[in-house]
Amino acid sequence: MTKGAWRVELELSPERSDPVGEAALKALEHRGLTVAGAVRSARAYLLPGDLGRAQVEEASRRLFADPVTEVVRILAPGELPAEAAAMVVIRRLPGVADPEGQSAGRALRLLGVELAESEAVESYRAFRVEGGVDTALLVEASSRALANPVIEKVSAGTEVQAMHPHPTARPGVRVEVPLLDAGGPRLTEISAGMSLALSVEEMGSIQAFFRGEGREPTDVELETLAQTWSEHCKHKTLTGPVRLVVRDEAGRTVAEREYRNLLKQTVFEATQRLSPDWCWSVFVDNAGVVALTEDIGVAIKVETHNHPSALDPYGGAGTGIGGVIRDILGTGLGARPFAATDVFCVGTSEMAAEDVPPGTMHPDRILAGVIAGVRDYGNRMGIPTVCGTVIRHPGYVANPLVFAGCVGEIPRDCVAKAARPGDAIVSIGGRTGRDGIHGATFSSEALHEESETVDAAAVQIGDPITEKKVLDVMMLARDRRLYSAVTDCGAGGFSSAVGEMGEHCGAEVELSTAPLKYPGLAYWEIWISEAQERMVFAVPPETEEAFLGLCASHEVEATVLGRFTGTGRLVLRWHGELVGDMPMDFLHGGVPQPLRQAELVQRDLPETAWPSEADPAALLLAALAHPSIASKEWVVRQYDHEVQGGTVVKPYQGPRGRGPGDGTVLKPRLDLDAGVAIGCGIAPRIAELDSWAGAAMAIDEAVRNVVAAGGNPHRVALLDNFCWGDCRKPDRFGTLVVAAEACRDVALAYGAPFISGKDSLNNEYRVGDRERPIPPTLLCTAIAPMADTALATTTPLKRAGDLLVLVGRTRAAAGGASVASDLLGLRDSLPPRPDLEGAPAIFDAVHRCIEDRLAVSCHDLSEGGLAVALAEMAIGSDGLGARLDLALVPADPGDCALGRLFAETPTRFLLEVAPERLERLAAQLRTLPWAAVGEVTADAGLEFLDSGDPAFRLDVEDLARANGARR
Amino acid sequence: MKPRVLQLFAAGVNCDRELSHAFALAGAEVEQIHVRELMRRPERIRDCDLFSVPGGFTYGDDLGAGTILGTEIECFLGEELRGLHQRGGTIFGVCNGFQALVKCGLLPGLEGVRASLTWNRTHRFECRWVRLRVEAGLGHVLPAGSILPAAAAHAEGRLVLGSPARDLALLEQAGLVAFRYADAAGAATSEYPACPNGSEGAIAGLVDASGRILGLMPHPERNLGPGSLPDRGAGAWGDGSEGIAFFRGMLAPYLAASAV
After folding, report:
1. Is A399 in contact with A306 (CB distance < 8 Å)?
2. How far is B14 from chain A (nearest CA, A)?
């Protein structure tokens, strides 16, 4: 049943400019709508229809309207606005979370307005077109241009608005699924029909188990198994057996390798062989933990949220960061988050609207949405987003990648945890709704044209303030030791959280106790819902009252769902009736692991042949404007990267705040000198040519970044995030196997263990029968502690007269490199790869130069090579420039000037050093490949020489303009 | 006895750690209290010299930044805060705390002048270091004309006035302008990026006639030393002492009293 509602709509006063309305006008025109006048936007609220006019007027005056900037429109239930025909109203679909509406309800109660609990206030948006417009056309254009049809509905201003009815109730009775007598095809049908994403072999194992039990499974048991066995939760591909066959271009087999457990025998094996004592927790918890000081550690985790972000970029990216923050909260007894990272991979900007595949959004709209999502969630949580990048590549058009990371500090004695029999299972934070049902299984399936409509339930809307309250109360409870274990509710919801915590003891849950957003959820929906902002605790009986009381005093809802037991079984009840009863052993160990096939074709690539004709000055300007190199300052400035007061080396540096940094350095505790350097690396263009090289380059870049900022290369810990196509296809899986091998090889060579990771392996998109995988994408994140952050370095040039020292040898190989591949057409040639034997000595020497304060600036050579690195150091400075002689660059014989300028050979650094300290610097660098190649000048220009002869010169302000940095 | 700072906490407050750290460095004893608790026992305000409202996104900035917290302050804490002020105490709000003090009417506190903090002219959140020029109204805390570098980080920080020209003159006359955004040469400006939001009159902070109700948008508590600065203390952004000097200046009356 629907109820009439008051509408309170607030527009900016007519004389004020309305940027939201102006953006809407552009978007509508882009969709082909002709509009005569301006578009004015309104933020708006629906209030219960039984309130009195005086109450609504008071609320609007005291709570809703800004007295200086806005005009108010109040409409009684059923009343239409004067210009209804020129208006659209955009509301959330029923059941989509509306945190602002909840806040509005709370605020009304402050004013003494009585609202029943089921009576919600709803926030919505409205747009009014001045000068008249065809209503139907306006609605049609707005549906595409202004709303996201996955979560919103557009209606004409002429429609009467009423409160949404409650979502339809599902039957609340125990349901069995007839499985015991089903054949293979029927098993497949059941899996597909229930959206379980289980293979026929897995369904067969389940059938065999329940035949042994002598009964049919219930729906909730199948759902639990599907969640727990999902690729997202179990990582079956990476942890299963695989056989790799490597062939040459002629199809001849050149190598064969087999792994029983790919991850264990590559990435994890390297960690075990290194096993340094400063790694406190690796690959067992929600995040890895390394030592910062003797008794404080740092927890770090990076997650992906790709498919939800494809459907709803804003909500998907926001809940992505929200989810990884909960990973950090759920590490040990809880780490306190102090930094966040983000990396986005999206299609290219140039793509024409008509080329965007059906069911997907234009890459620019996706990018704007994911940035806003991370911004609004991270900023509200008060966690500085400090490190990241944006990759543009046509391969991500239909399947963007959104990586979100979080770093927290944790006392050493909080790293271990275990739920004990008798502990209460307590859920705190957000309520459970129908949002995100099947998120874990959805992310394990490829996207397809209809994803936009059929998977709407898998979209989640974030409510950062609820999560912030959880964080606040949790830190108090942790320090009072009120609980014995905690984990986050992520993919799979309660089913994964309780299943994991109770794996070694057992658990019993009464599903009817879970607080719901609205009535009518089936018990299996409650069990697997991925509603956001929930954490699950194991609370001993003796502290239960104190824990619940503390939550209540912070207005955080906390509910006892059941108890951990000693039975080794997972028992689920619904109003007392038994609806699930399975041994934890089967749940966690019953998934079949068939041998998977992987193939790799080794490409026979030619050496990179640098041309001799190109104009280096034009090339440098073009390189600085390249999407991978162009300034990302406009993104970083939207993030509160300074909150908590500990961001000592910032993402954009120097007196004008426009010099791009390498790693960022943060102090988690303002009362300590210690901090961490954080960096990341990613090289999908190279991985397309050579997966080993792509992975190795990503790792080298991440390590370079933290070393350049002052991090200790002997204390670097790494994270892997593999985003690949459908690895059930042997050619996709082949490049993944080789990337995992690269992680092992580089980790061992650099002495840098991987401590945590995550994979997302079904990043494909189907249109008809064409299948498109994304480029093989490994994001590597590096973190290194620093004893004293005062020793950190930045990239901008500091003083005229200082010398520029280049460390590391330049080699010609440039296949897949951004400048070479995109600007000179050299894409299909041998890609650069790190020299695993030589690199560690370079990292070590550069670190000692920084630690001894010999290098006053340091920048790693990355995309765009030496020329771009030097340009960026000048752009960040206060009006300084540089003179550099290319003939002095340590390079392989046969190299040309263009290669020296733009080659992207890894493990190279450009240092700024005072002339009087050169001798001491030389003592550190000794026999490594290095040379003093130039000097800092007082005029704001870059002057390149070749054996003393002027080659070319550019003004720094022209470089800055090309780079997109604001003047 | 050290000056006593009572710091308000609420859902969405997120600059509490650095703010209490800055007050502590400046010599204060800081106690934090949850708004729920304080609404039950507002008389707790009587125990402090300075009442501090930190930055953040209270209640998610829903209904407009600072609106709900401002309503809570107005409805439940107003009387005790007026008492504190009459006894010579200070009320301080930064960023979201400033927004709340404006929304609840404690600032600018001048009859007939309507002020609000609204969306930045760029219409997006902006985080960057800015230079704040100390205006005459704040001469008792820091030398007028001196520069306080601070980190701006807000989406709704543009100060707007009911009738801009007239109200600006009234504020000026009454000495209620505390800080203005300034360029590298120290000249007041409303231009981006030196002023990230386009505030009318380049106003970054306000003070009441007594000089003891004070609010500003950018965060002086993020200026904790040379390592905090964009150029790490090379000189273009001061030497990193200005932030703590500001907090010490606010606490001066109570530091002096406690020394006696």
Report:
1. yes
2. 5
Check residue A61 and report its DSSP letter. I
A655 in contact with B at a CB cutoff of 8 Å? Answer: yes
Our CA angle for B114, B115, B116, nearest 5°, is 135
- The DSSP output letter for B186 is S
**pLDDT tens digits along B207-231:** 999 999 999 999 999 999 999 999 9
Report the alpha-carbon distance of residue A802 to residue B104 in Å, rounded.
Answer: 55
Contacts with B, A 779-798, CB within 8 Å: 789-790, 794, 796, 798
Confidence class for position A2, pLDDT limits 50, 70, 90: low
Q: Domain coordinates of chain A in residue numbers?
A: 5-156, 184-238, 793-967
Residues 30-89 of A with CB under 8 A from B: 62-64, 66-69
Please tell me the distance in Å from B147's CA to the nearest CA on chain A.
Answer: 15
Radius of gyration of chain A from Cα atoms? 29
Q: Is the confidence at residue A435, as pLDDT, over 60?
A: yes
- What is the DSSP-derived secondary structure letter of residue A326? H
Residue B79: predicted pLDDT: 96
Per mean pLDDT, which range of A28-32, B59-63, B64-68 is the poorest? A28-32
CA distance A397 to A350: 11
Interatomic CA distance for residues A722 and A695, integer angstroms? 10
Residue B236 burial (CB < 10 Å; 0-12/13-18/19+)?
Answer: middle
Residue B163 pLDDT: 93
| Average pLDDT score over residue span A577-605 | 95
Predicted TM-score of the model (pTM) = 0.95
CATH number 3.40.50.150 given to A5-156: no
Structure confidence by residue, pLDDT tens digits, A99-114:
899 899 989 988 888 8
CA distance B56 to chain A (A): 7
CB–CB of A465 and B57 under 8 A? yes
Residue B206: pLDDT band (50, 70, 90) is very high
Of all residues in chain A, the percent with pLDDT exceeding 90 is: 82
Mutate to test the interface with B, among A46, A338, A533, A640 (most CBs of B within 10 A): A640
Contact between B11 and A468 using a beta-carbon 8 Å cutoff = yes
Res. A906 pLDDT band, cuts 50 70 90: very high
Q: Average the pLDDT over A450-473 and give the result.
A: 76
Cα torsion A768, A771, A775, A778: sign: positive
User: What is the separation of C-alpha A69 from the centre of its chain, rounded to a whole number of angstroms?
Assistant: 36
pLDDT tens digits along A750-759: 999 999 999 9
* Segment A356-380, tens digit of pLDDT: 888 889 999 999 999 999 999 999 9
Candidates A465, A858, A878, A966, partner chain B, best to mutate (most B CBs within 10 A): A465
Supply the DSSP string of A91-106, one letter for each residue: EEPTT---HHHHHHHH
* Residue B78 CB burial class (10 angstroms; 0-12, 13-18, ≥19): middle
Domain spans of chain B, in order of start: 4-259
Q: Would you identify the CATH topology of the domain A793-967?
A: Phosphoribosyl-aminoimidazole Synthetase; Chain A, domain 2 (3.90.650)
Rounded CA separation A912/A929 (Å): 16
Distance between first and last Cα of chain B: 10
pLDDT of residue A459: 67
Q: Sheet with A855-860: list strands edge to edge.
A: A855-860, A909-913, A803-807, A930-937, A881-885, A941-946, A949-955
The complex's ipTM works out to 0.96
Q: What is the CATH number of domain B4-259?
A: 3.40.50.880
What residue ranges in A474-595 does DSSP mark as E strands? 485-488, 507-510, 534-539, 558-564, 569-574, 577-583
Could you list the active site residues of A?
232, 305
Other Cβ atoms less than 10 A from the Cβ of B36: the count is: 16
